[in-house]
Specification:
Chain A: Pfam families: FNIP_C (PF14638), FNIP_M (PF14637), FNIP_N (PF14636). The complex is a heterodimer. Chain A is of the alpha+beta class. Chain A is 48% helix and 12% strand. In chain A, helix 10 packs antiparallel against helix 11 and helix 13 runs antiparallel to helix 14. Helix content of chain B is 48%, strand content 18%. In chain B, strand 5 and strand 6 form a beta hairpin. In chain B, helix 7 runs parallel beside helix 10, helix 12 crosses helix 14 and helix 17 crosses helix 20. The chains are: A alpha+beta, B alpha+beta.
Chain lengths: 919, 594
């Protein structure tokens, strides 16, 4: 059984097998029904050496030029015997620690002299630039220069730093040496200070770093809070009517956020970087190197890196912050960086190699090719786990667990909202959403991003995020509960359709395929047709461009008028009159998917069309704004659209012909797309659920930790919360500012479920039993006696759906019940006491945004475990203030207070979208 | 902003220049091409921006002599791609320009064919691959180009970086391969060594020419010897963009449609099939109906329904409501393609909403007896027949429809079967009969009277007219037995309770009812499941036991659940049966193994 368990849960055999053996017997003596085994592969941790991570930190400023500040390659631990001998060296550390790169005076560099290699530099030889510092009791030595520094500086900053001093991110990959490098260049926000003030900056942790509203790395949350947020909101409102119920009512959260991303992106584009030059930039890079013979390992890591980039960058951000804070502190920067580097290495290592729960339950159940037997086995397994945890010994434990998880990890919500139409593809009890691929192609969001949102349950706006941690000493129990939880955490899953990119190959033999493709393209070109009757923008109009906004609008309309004037000349007519009988639009029907579009698809296409129409509108709007403000835009690029004075001379404008080319689809030529097996390094849904381990890692949204020292875990959870809500904490969610960070701590040993939130960090709220969840558990009891396990899965889904409908009903009820007071009530019912102040501030958009800010997860209050009296009292008043409506709801829907608390968070997510509709 | 691709060149004279860029935008294809103004405007912007006067007249900075814009439409994914040498989209232009300068001038890659990803939030992110093409006439016999993929989402770009790199390399290889061939041809001269004519074997040797002293500018189309290079690169870029859109697919899962929707769909399918047999040809010829026609159909529907009473055509009267509407369709010779309202347009709660709610409140008021109301609803929800005997003194049938829609709302779709008393056929199966007392029934009325006298039917008499709030009289004709104390189902209590709440609007009302319906339907599902399992069926014969299983309070609830099994869809029932079969088989195998 032990080995079976290992196979099922994909454990790191070295760490847990021993304990497993003991606990396995223990649980069987508890008359635990044995878990039905699933034949799954064992977890094989990837091979990764964290010493292969190299960190480079440069500083570049107008005054001093490019300087190397830190290079982990030249770092060396000084043997303790060495220490005493070189103590007298210490005095020189401070002065030497910041020798200019390659030792050349910076002015040389700035005047454009070719960079001189360090070896040829006399200055460097005379003064062997070695800096030493102590870190955690060890003394380190940082030698200056390794030979490749010059190259790396070029990679990071570019070869023409004087011409273009850009900030931003870069990724370089190379085959020899086998390495991947990610680098960031950013402007120092802290102005160059005199060293005297530096002390304050060292004490300031990353979270207290001053917020620069012009910080280029975090524009998204700024524009959300600033004026552009208003325009975003207004465009959202208009859109929602068009999108109708499909997006906002029925697919709560999920689609909405995906759509919202586009809206926000459109705004993001309009953000302008301030024109000022950065006086000082820091360039930081980390390089992961592999041995030349480790190509497969490298490829694996590269793929992992690409998919997990948001999380990795989140960790990388910490190094950047450390460098920025300490940049003026000559003595401590190396130590600080080294500290961060170690953490970073550990984080990356953990993220990469930590054992995952191979095949979470939800993931398996949604697979297309799931056999009946396999599914039954799974269902039985889930049932037996539920059974195990609902024995009298555990009391309401499972109820509390599910209440907490289902209340905060809301990815399940969209999986129970019924689709409006019959889907082409059904998996047992779910319908695969048909609209995603089309949505993806014109919303152009990253599916991985969508997964992150799902996994962290960052649905509302501003987002809160949620993680679940299970602790205990019995790894077998941990595993089972973990497995059960993985059924309720329901991210989308990804399919990689890697089209074979090999259109040709370097070898002679395959050049035939190249010829073939070329022939194919030639055919296409031959069949291309001209699109006629497109009139160019009249130059008379374009002269007035940018004079007046109204004028431009007029322009647009004029053109439309012109075009609609000769309506007889539609494309249709024209193309038919051409020699070739093909119609322009029909040329594109070459795709082989076409015949599959049947009547049944009407609904989908309708949904899509409404979406498309809307997006189209947005694009048009966007373009209009672009056209409207050519004076701003064209300044840097005067070459194209601004009418030049020569223009009147050029009388005959050669009009370009517009050709329409059919779709080029090399797939027809035997370039079949290869579908890849999903592995954790490609799919965040598989990756961010970790198996049983010994330490806490913030990257995983669901993890089980085998430990007896819970306090330590709590401490790291709280630390993570603090970090999450800082400016950089949400970097992995496209730089969004995270409003609240929540961790559900499930302790199997204590049989307790506690909620920790960044709002009041040290106070845990004990999750209470809810009546809403109870049916889910009861179904399983029924199964034990009467029904096959398969039925139970169905019934469980139905119960979840009931909750969803109940939440909908409550929301509508609350809305109806106090329409005029609704916005206020929503504040008080969902918000905390602090937000009551904002009620008085008038009925503006602004307030609404603030209310959403406050409508949080303010963890409900009663019966705090360690109740600080003052806090509790403020909370009860908050609830009392709000409670009239809440009481109504509770009475009307026959809920318990804990039920309402459970629903509150769901309501909040649902409400975020509703709010916009009310406006 | 959507992703775009660009081909750039480092000109000896002018520095980095953009040769071609391909952008994409969402595009909906309109079935009847009337809506093309939008796209024409879009195109015309490009033609305008192609004015060459702003552009440097330099061969090297031009892609090909043929100045063509190329556009492709991907109708499946609703995308339009267009390639031009410069874009009217100012933001994109700036980003491409920026990417161009950076990729050709500034960024340094570690290896020759290693792409670089660079960018920031303001200028977008770019994956660029710089490469050189052989050209005999160029300085140093080669020219520097770069391919860029630009998009604003860095993590998206990162996640497809590997794929894009491969594709870019392919594209580069194409160009280089062609350029090499041209170079080979230009760079050497064929010499006939067989000058004397002595040797029989004609061997050709090549002499390499010395490169020209003064390098000359050439177009890329000359370098690769392809006059249609614009098209080719456009095709490649479109391929690249489409591939990047579809490289990673997200699979989302929704719940199946609710039983209500499924049963509705199934009912529709049944009628479609019936109809299919006789009107197959007609239907297929007119699959797409323009909006105006469908509105017309709707109008006529309402109109005809008011006329139903006086229509001499017995065909109308003798068919059930559903097929009646189908008849209209055939008469209109159009296909009514609305997906869920094929039968229920008249009785859908959402189409009356507030009006229906108010009417029902009035109904309660006129009934003026809470016991009666309970009695009606109680019988209604557990499946007894309800007969509305109405006298309509108004022109419109709206009111009666609105009232019916309320009753309809209370039951799951599958349980609701409405028949107008003018129709003989469905009377026995129907549980909701609308009986207009003004109609003189010419045909045999025996079944109707039989039904009217049925003990289980509840007859309500209504009089509508224009005076006094439209609903003048509501009278319960079959009075409840005074002695019998049938427990009231919880569901009915909920409904009645809802009407005491004055603040409720129709939306909230509907969603609360829906919630409860879902709840009881789920119980009905469970009931159905138990019925399929022998062990369960024997174990839970006792009503009390069943009540605990379903977590309900009284016998009426149980009756409700039993009746509501009718509201389950065929699809669900089939699924359960299959699952059960599978389970049985499994158990048999297990037994055999033992």
């Amino acid at each position: 059984m032990n080995s079976i368990l290992n196979r099922v849960f994909g454990k790191n055999p070295s760490s847990t097998s021993k304990k497993n053996a003991t606990t396995g017997t223990a649980s069987s003596s508890n008359s635990t029904p044995p878990l039905t085994p699933l034949d799954l592969p064992q977890w094989i941790p990837p091979d990764f050496n964290r010493d292969n991570i190299r960190l480079l930190v440069f500083s570049d400023s107008d005054d001093t030029g490019l300087q190397l500040i830190f290079d982990s390659k030249t770092l060396r631990v000084v043997p303790s015997t060495d220490n005493d001998n070189n103590i007298n060296n210490k005095s020189s550390i401070a002065t030497n620690s910041r020798t200019s790169l390659s030792g050349v005076p910076s002015s040389n560099y700035a005047t454009g002299k070719p960079p001189v290699g360090p070896s040829s530099n006399s200055g460097a030889r005379v003064n062997p630039a070695i800096s030493r510092f102590t870190h955690k009791g060890k003394q380190y030595e940082l030698r200056k220069f390794s030979n490749d520094i010059r190259n790396y500086a070029d990679y990071i900053f570019g070869t023409m730093p004087l011409l273009f001093k850009g900030t931003g991110m870069k990724v370089h990959t190379s085959k020899s040496p086998l390495q991947i490098m990610m680098s960031r260049v950013f402007a120092v926000k802290l102005a160059d200070r005199p060293d005297g003030i530096v002390n304050t900056s060292t004490t300031s942790e990353p979270d207290t770093a001053p917020v620069n509203p012009l910080n280029p790395f975090l524009p998204s949350h700024i524009n959300r809070s600033l004026s552009s947020g208003v325009s975003a909101a207004s465009s959202t409102i208009s859109s929602i009517d068009i999108l109708g119920e499909d997006l906002t009512n029925h697919k709560f959260g999920r689609l909405y956020r995906r759509w919202l991303k586009v809206a926000n992106r459109a705004i993001k584009q309009n953000q302008r970087q301030p024109g000022r030059r950065h006086r000082r930039c820091i360039g930081i890079a980390f390089i992961v190197t592999f041995q030349q013979d480790e190509l497969s390992k490298y490829k694996h890591f590269e793929e992992f890196f690409c998919t997990h980039a948001p999380l990795i960058e989140n960790h990388f951000q910490k190094i950047m912050t450390a460098a920025e804070v300490n940049i003026n502190e000559r003595n401590s920067i190396a130590a600080a960086l080294l500290d961060r580097l170690f953490t970073f290495k550990d984080d990356l290592y953990t993220l990469y190699t930590r054992p995952r729960l191979i095949y979470p339950a939800w993931y398996i159940l949604t697979q297309e090719h799931l056999t009946m037997t396999k599914r039954r086995a799974l269902a039985q397994q889930l049932c037996s786990i539920i059974d195990l945890f609902s024995t009298p010994k555990y009391g309401d434990f499972l109820n509390c667990v599910l209440s907490a998880v289902l209340s905060y990890q809301l990815s399940w919500l969209s999986t129970v909202s019924p689709s409006l139409i019959k889907s082409k593809q059904q998996v047992l009890f779910k319908a695969k959403a048909d609209y995603t691929s089309s949505m993806q192609s014109f919303l152009q969001y990253s599916p991985l991003w969508g997964q992150l949102i799902d996994l962290f349950s960052a649905y509302s706006q501003p987002p809160y995020i949620c993680r679940t941690v299970i602790v205990g000493t019995d790894s077998s129990l941990l595993n089972r509960l973990l497995y059960l939880m993985s059924f309720f955490i329901r991210p989308s899953y990804l399919t990689y359709k890697n089209p074979n990119p090999n259109l040709s190959d370097t070898t002679d033999e395959q050049n035939r395929s190249y010829k073939k493709v070329r022939l194919y393209i030639d055919e296409l070109i031959a069949s291309s047709t001209q699109i006629q009757d497109i009139e160019p923008y009249s130059p008379v109009h374009s002269i007035h461009d940018g004079d007046d906004d109204d004028d431009d609008e007029q322009n647009l309309e004029d053109d439309i008028d012109i075009l609609s004037g000769d309506e007889s000349n539609t494309n249709h007519n024209h193309t038919t009159s051409l020699n070739q009988p093909q119609e322009f639009y029909q040329l594109t029907y070459t795709s082989d998917d076409l015949e599959s579009t049947s009547v049944e698809d009407n609904e989908i296409s309708q949904l899509l069309n409404s979406l498309v129409i809307h997006i189209d509108q947005m694009i048009v709007n966007e373009q209009r704004t672009q056209i409207q403000s050519p004076t701003i835009h064209s300044r840097p690029t005067p070459s194209v659209t601004l009418p030049s004075p020569i223009q009147p001379v050029v009388n005959s404008l050669p009009t370009k012909i517009l050709m329409s080319l059919p779709l080029f689809e090399p797939n027809h030529l035997g370039h079949e797309s290869i579908s890849l097996n999903n592995d954790y390094h490609l799919d965040l849904g598989l990756s961010l659920i970790s198996s049983v381990t010994n330490s806490y890692s913030s990257d995983f949204i669901l993890q089980a930790i085998e430990t007896s020292n819970v306090n330590e875990i709590i401490r790291s959870i709280c630390a993570q919360h603090t970090y999450d809500t800082t400016e950089n904490g949400g970097i992995f969610l496209d730089g969004e500012l995270i409003d609240t960070s929540i961790t559900i701590l499930i302790n199997i040993d204590d049989i307790s479920v506690n909620l920790y939130s960044s709002k009041h960090n040290d106070i845990a709220r004990k999750q209470e039993r809810t009546t809403l969840i109870q049916p889910i558990i009861e179904h399983v009891h029924l199964a034990k006696q009467l029904l096959p396990a398969d039925f139970v899965l169905l019934n469980m889904e139905d119960s979840l759906q009931e909750i969803y409908f109940q939440a909908l009903a409550i929301l509508k009820y609350m809305k109806a019940n106090n329409r005029s007071l609704y916005s206020q009530e929503s504040v008080s019912s969902f918000g905390d006491s602090a937000s009551t102040a904002s009620i008085t501030s008038g009925d503006t958009d602004d307030r609404h945004s603030r209310t959403t800010n406050h409508t949080v997860t303010d963890l409900p209050t009663q019966s705090l475990m360690n109740s600080v009296l003052t806090i509790e009292s403020t909370y009860t008043t908050a609830i009392d203030n709000s409670s009239e409506l809440v009481q109504n709801v509770i009475r009307k829907f026959q809920l318990q207070r804990s039920d309402y608390m459970f629903l509150k968070n769901i309501l909040r997510v649902l409400e975020t979208e509703q709010m916009q509709m009310i406006n | 902003m959507n992703a775009s691709c660009a081909l750039q060149h480092f000109c000896d004279l002018h520095g980095p220049q953009t040769l071609l860029c391909t952008e994409q935008r969402a595009h909906i294809q309109n079935a009847n091409d009337n809506d093309d103004e939008d796209i024409k405007t879009f195109y015309s912007q490009y033609i305008k921006s192609e004015n060459p006067q702003g552009k440097v007249e330099c061969k090297s900075c031009t892609l090909s002599p043929e100045s063509a814009l190329v556009s492709t439409i991907d109708s499946d994914n609703h995308m339009l791609y267009i390639s031009s040498s410069s874009t009217p989209n100012q933001d994109l232009f700036k980003n491409i320009r920026n990417a161009c300068v950076r990729s050709l001038n500034i960024e340094k890659s570690v290896e020759v064919d290693a792409p670089i990803l660079f960018g920031d939030d303001v200028n977008g992110y770019c994956l660029s691959l710089a490469f050189s093409c052989k050209d005999f006439h160029a300085r140093g016999s080669q020219r520097l180009y770069s391919l860029c993929y630009i998009c604003s989402d860095k993590y998206h770009l990162l996640s497809i970086m590997k794929l894009l790199s491969d594709c870019l390399r392919q594209a580069v290889y194409w160009l280089q391969y062609d350029a090499n061939e041209t170079y080979e041809q230009e760079g050497r001269i064929k010499v006939n060594t067989n000058l004397n004519g002595t040797s029989t074997t004609t061997r050709t040797t090549y002499i390499f020419r010395t490169p020209p002293c003064v390098p000359s500018q050439r177009m890329l189309s000359d370098i690769v010897h392809d006059s249609k290079i614009t098209f080719r690169i456009h095709a490649l870029f479109v391929w690249l963009l489409r591939m990047s859109n579809s490289a990673i697919n997200e699979s989302l899962f929704d719940a199946l449609p609710t039983e209500e929707q499924t049963t509705k769909q199934e009912r529709k399918d049944v009628y479609d099939n019936e109809n299919l047999s006789n009107s197959l040809t007609k239907r297929r010829t007119t699959t797409i109906v323009s909006r105006s026609t469908s509105i017309h159909v709707q109008d006529s529907l309402l109109l005809s329904s008011t006329l139903t009473n006086y229509t001499p055509n017995p065909g109308y009267l003798s068919t059930s409501l559903y097929s009646t509407i189908d008849n209209y369709h055939q008469n209109e010779n159009g296909y009514y393609d609305d997906e869920d309202d094929f039968d229920s347009l008249q009785y859908q709660f959402s189409s009356y909403g507030y009006e229906a709610l108010k009417l029902f409140e009035l109904f309660i008021k006129k009934l003026n007896n809470i016991k009666y109301l309970q009695y009606i609803l109680n019988n209604w929800v557990i499946g007894n027949r309800l007969i509305l005997k109405y006298t309509n003194r108004m022109d419109s049938k709206d009111l009666i429809c609105a009232l019916a829609s309320i009753f309809r709302l209370f039951l799951p779709d599958g349980c609701f079967h409405l028949v107008e008393a003018t129709n003989q056929k469905g009377l026995h199966t129907a549980n909701f009969i609308l009986y207009d007392t003004d109609i003189v029934l010419t045909n045999d009325t025996s079944s109707l009277t039989e039904i009217l006298n049925d003990n289980n039917s509840i007859v309500i008499k209504l009089i509508f007219d224009d005076i006094d709030d439209n609903l003048r009289v509501v009278k319960l004709e079959t009075l409840p037995l005074t002695r019998s104390e049938i427990p009231i189902p919880t569901y009915v209590k909920t409904i009645i309770d809802l009407f005491t709440d004055s603040n409720l609007n129709e939306e909230a009302f509907e969603s609360i009812i829906t919630q409860h319906k879902i709840k009881y339907l789920n119980k009905a599902k469970l009931h159905f499941q138990l019925g399929r399992c022998q062990t369960a069926a024997t174990l839970s014969t006792n009503d009390r036991q069943q009540m605990t299983i379903f977590n309900v309070e009284n016998m009426s609830d149980l009756a409700l659940i039993r009746f509501w099994q009718k509201g389950l869809s065929q699809a669900y029932k089939t699924q359960i049966r299959i699952l059960k079969q599978d389970d049985n088989q499994h158990q048999r195998i297990q037994k055999q193994q033992k």
